[in-house]
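User: I'm preparing a small set of examples for a lab meeting where we compare how different chains pack in three dimensions. I only have the primary sequence for this one, and I'd like the structure in token form so I can line it up with the others. Please keep the answer compact; I'll paste it straight into my notes.
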Amino acid sequence: MMVDTHRITTGAGHGLCISRREGAGLPVLFLNSFAADHTMWDAVRARMGRTTIAYDARGHGASDVAGHDLTVADLAADAKAVIAAEGLRDVVLCGLSLGGLTAMALAADPSVSVRGLVLANTAVNFPPASMWQDRAKTVLSGGYSGLIEPTLERWLTEGWRASHPEELARARAMLESMPPQGYADACAALASADTSAELAGWAGPTLIIAGAHDASSPVARAEEMRGIAQDARLVVLDAAHVSAIEAPEAFAHALEGFVAELEATHA
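Assistant: Understood. Below is the structure token output for the 267-residue chain.
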């Protein structure tokens, strides 16, 4: 399936790098996790026949760096701009970690036609704020020394890392290539985020995907979201925090089944 990679400039003047795969059916917009880029979704998207759009969140990958503290509302505004630029009328939002927060915030916007919400390895907030503030200071003053390996250990289980050296190298390169200022800007968004009200106000269907070995967003946090949401189901995968990389087959299966149900219900 052909992939079109291009850039857009939002109304606010921010450049975003977008990857689009054409297909049939209800489109899915993928929202990347903190410190990753749109390629984290490659293995999931390769297993889907429908139109999928993924992009690098501001400060990540090849998208512009904000150069100032971001909020989840800022990131949701960027996602809204992508939806408009790509001509999407109805869309399923699929966000992981920070991308999940962005998806919840965007789903609360009545001007966007969101058909379904997929929240993977995320939570409505990530306290304490001081942890993110300290990480931002560390990266801005000394770069990523000492942060890369612990991050990979949180992202992916030990067994998977040992058996997938090439994929692990790509994940490490993705982390190492993130602009330090972009990292710090996104830390501010995580420090201030709380999407409890947005999730509670979303009346549409929600699929929550958790990782059985996820220490960053444990299954208990997924259960918390299921209790807040009006119409949610929970799937637990055999993975750590970035389940889209570690368990793409199971992730794609759960996602495709959810979207197919939405299409059947709408029909």
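A couple of notes for your slides: The CA atoms of residues 108 and 158 lie 37 Å apart. The chain has one domain: 3-266.

User: Perfect, thanks.
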